[in-house]
Amino acid sequence: MTESGFEKVPARDRRRFPGISSRAYEHPADRSALVALRKLTGFDTVFKALSGLLPERSLRLLFLSDSVRVGETQFPHLHEMLRDACYILDLEKVPQMYVQQDPRPNAMCIGLDEPIIVVTTALVELLDEEEMRAVVGHEVGHALSGHAVYRTILLFLTALSLKVAWIPLGNVAIMAIVTALREWFRKSELSADRAGLLVGQDVNASMRGLMKIAGGNHLHEMNVDSFLAQAEEYESSGDLRDSVLKILNMLPRTHPFTTVRAAELKKWSQNRDYQRIMDGHYPRRDEDKDTSVTDSFRESAAHYADAVRSSKDPLIKLVGDFAGGAAGVGGKLRDKFTAAAGGAGTGTGTRTENKGDGATEKG
Predict the structure, then answer these.
(1) What SS3 state is found at 107?
(2) Pairing state of beta strands 96-100 and 116-120?
(3) Are strands 116-120 and 107-110 parallel, antiparallel or unpaired?
(4) Contacting residues for 63 by C-beta, under 8 A, at least 6 apart
(5) What residue ranges in the chain does DSSP mark as E strands?
(6) Would you state the torsion angle of the CA atoms of residues 46, 49, 53, 59, taken in this order, to the nearest 10 degrees?
(7) Per-residue b/e over 262-278, b at no fewer than 16 CB within 10 Å?
(8) Phi-psi category of residue 2: left, alpha or beta, with phi > 0 → left and psi -120 to 50 → alpha
(9) Which 3 state secondary structure label does DSSP give 118?
(10) Highest mean pLDDT range out of 33-47, 208-222, 227-241, 346-360?
(11) CB 229 within 8 Å of CB 255
């Protein structure tokens, strides 16, 4: 171990992405969920009201007074990682970063006007240099995508919902927005994982970091392939009851399950979109204003359709059957019904249907 707490790793050059737009790495579900969130009835009103009420200055003062601000003289290794991540993703203003004493490994990016990155001591102690680099890149990705604003609102509304739980309808309205925010934020985590990979440019380090967050600092006891197999088993095993339980388990969470995140990131790292970015072909920030909302929805719809078709989850497959071929399902039910009726009848093979006007049809 070094004095900084990290093991020595070979220095290497990393590719930089000048002017990269967050659209390059954003998960399609992240973009669609954010658009849908903004269209949620009453959200604009709540957002405008909260923008003036949120104690952002209080948050900054809190971290300034009770955490360690990362800089050239405090956690300098994290400071260099942060600057490097901002350089790679071409984020002009480097966010302030704090280390907070907490036995739980965690990191977050919050703030309305200017994002703040916070990492816990448990996380710093848990990860090696390359794993931590991916985490810092993850949080810088949140900053570049503008996720910090909505994360801050989510934290505020979650706390507020507890205070107004005694009001008959007040809590229901707030929890509707909190639920929508959580759904969006889970998707935004998948986007930020991709940003972390673009910064670290080491998929194995990203996998190790996620495994450690799930199972602690016992890499000698863990295996990446077996860890990814858990995600496969989680998705495909069980019946409709398990599918419902998965949904119920997910609802209160702000992050996707760790094995699912690992599987999604591994899949993206093998996708041609990732390779195109690494080759320097990616959407630029100066093109964002010309982006079509309709195209974003179309891309998201295509992604969801593909996800439904390829999913092995029993409930998703059932939904896919109904969404993709309701007529076919109806036809199968009709055939089964008429076959049973024919077997109990004359066996002539003639089918009579009520057409509503006294007409009959032979099959």
Answers:
(1) strand
(2) parallel
(3) antiparallel
(4) 69, 98, 100, 116, 118
(5) 68-69, 96-100, 107-110, 116-120
(6) 50
(7) bbbbbebbeeeebeebe
(8) beta
(9) strand
(10) 208-222
(11) no
More confident of the two residues 94 and 29? 94
The arrangement of strands across the sheet holding 96-100 comes to 68-69, 96-100, 116-120, 107-110
From 37, 58, 60, select the one nearest 147 (Cα to Cα): 37
Q: Which amino acid is at 179?
A: T
- Helix, strand, coil distribution of the chain in percent, nearest 5: 65, 5, 30
Q: Enter the DSSP assignment of 95.
A: P
Q: How far apart are CA 335 and CA 361, in angstroms?
A: 15
**Structure confidence by residue, pLDDT tens digits, 276-323:** 999 999 999 988 776 655 555 566 555 555 554 555 555 455 455 544
Residue 355 pLDDT greater than 60, yes or no: no
If you search the block for the tokens 């004359």, which residue do you land on? 346
Instruction: Confirm whether pTM is higher than 0.90.
Output: no
Cα–Cα distances (Å) from 20 to 139, 186, 283, 340, in that order, read: 16, 23, 6, 62
